[in-house]
Design brief:
The chain is an alpha/beta fold. It has nine helices and ten strands. Bound molecules: adenosine-5'-triphosphate (ATP) and magnesium ion.
Length: about 250
Amino acid sequence: MRKHNITLEVSNLTKKYNDFIAIDHVNFTVFNGEFLGLLGPNGAGKTTLVKIISAAIKPSEGIITINGHKIHEEPGEVKKSIGVVSHNSYLYEELTAYENLEFFGKIYGIPSKELDEHIKWALESVNLQHRSHDAVSTFSRGMKQRLSIARAMIHHPKLLILDEPTVGLDLQSKNIFYDLIKEINKSGSTIFLTTHYILEAETLCDRIIILSRGKVVLEGKVTSIKEQYPNMTFEDIYLEVTKSGAKL
Ligand SMILES: Nc1ncnc2c1ncn2[C@@H]1O[C@H](COP(=O)(O)OP(=O)(O)OP(=O)(O)O)[C@@H](O)[C@H]1O
Ligand SMILES: [Mg+2]
């Protein structure tokens, strides 16, 4: 039966690279409209998890269901209902912002009659309409990041997946970027964000999952976690649970 309030369901997920277990029997659910943060030290398995839920690589075991579609059964349907922002911007430097979005809009199968409307909406959402006819090669890093978001949301995805989207951005650009993500979240998209910035996760996310050595070591609402560990800062809680991959 379709669970209508669930955007993403990860069930018994394991990923092995040869003998190395990068993701170890992970289970979690993300509900419609949630802002979920995935934290964890280098090598914890965050990008591996992002790649699996983006249908870019296959798991060794387990089932992923996104917007009611199982990835292994309907990868095409899943890809249509998600947007992904990762380390690779996938933007073409020599093309303009508009041309890039036109290219990706066609890949997502947006009908040509509607394409211009989608592109203008996406450019306005990331506040780049004034640069729409400039080549991406003339953009700053922050502008490229914002255009990556526009690319990821051009087809109005229900789930936006972001893997460390603010790496290399200055404080102002980070704030602009996160205001934008908050707006996208408020307008109804579910957000799945990985980050190393504990404070950002604490202030932005409804719920967080901490991964360590491929296992979930802590999961819960930010407010509940703080109540659970009243005398610790969020950073201390994070350091404690990820110390040895063991539980607190
Ligand atoms: N293609 C691959 N082949 C073999 N091992 C891999 C591959 N990709 C990732 N790994 C290993 O899987 C583990 C998890 O890597 P992953 O990139 O998912 O971590 P991460 O949590 O995203 O780390 P970071 O915070 O540094 O981005 C690491 O030990 C990494 O070396
Ligand atoms: Mg990573």
